[in-house]
């Protein structure tokens, strides 16, 4: 009888501890990283660094983290599959049309903390990841390492949600980042 009570108590402690660890392991700490970001003085400068201006929606995303054999981060970003609903500028060698899906590297990634519970999400220069079902304008250029992937030119300067209303004209938001959303909408008659 005493053995059953002890065994029951031990199993209960293990179950509670396991649930506590699982809860702690599901938490994500957010860390913002600084980088030498490039800002653009006007829309022309932003466009000159790009090869592709499109609108569309993100479909799904995959975390991409590459570590060396010693566990040191080599590269990290999120690969987002983006379904195009409009091509407004394309100086790349690829012919793209409405309905095509492209890969976009977003400057955000998640690393599992190993034995320490939880994970850490690293965000570069305050970048906000695209949200599924939202519609965006993206200013892109091909990635230098991965030829089938595109990177967002200027981080926040090259990605704008079409789901929210912004003020008219080119403005500078917090952190000195320009907002070219209305200029892009007006220049390319984006709906």
Quick structural gist:
The chain contains 3 helices and 11 strands, in the order αβαββββββββββα.
What are the SSEs and their pairings?
Layout: H1 2-25, E1 28-33, H2 43-48, E2 52-67, E3 73-90, E4 101-106, E5 108-112, E6 119-124, E7 136-142, E8 149-152, E9 159-161, E10 171-172, E11 178-179, H3 181-188
Parallel strand pairs: 1-6, 4-8
Antiparallel strand pairs: 2-3, 2-7, 3-4, 5-6, 7-8, 7-9, 10-11
Provide structural commentary.
- With 191 residues, the protein is α+β, with helices and mostly antiparallel strands.
- 20% of the residues lie in helices and 39% in strands.
- A five-stranded mixed beta barrel has the order 2-3-4-8-7. The chain has a three-stranded mixed sheet with strand order 1-6-5, with no helix packed on it.
- A hairpin with a 5-residue loop joins β10 and β11 (178-179).
- The longest helix has 24 residues, at 2-25.
- The termini are far apart.
- Mean pLDDT is 85; it is low at 165-172.
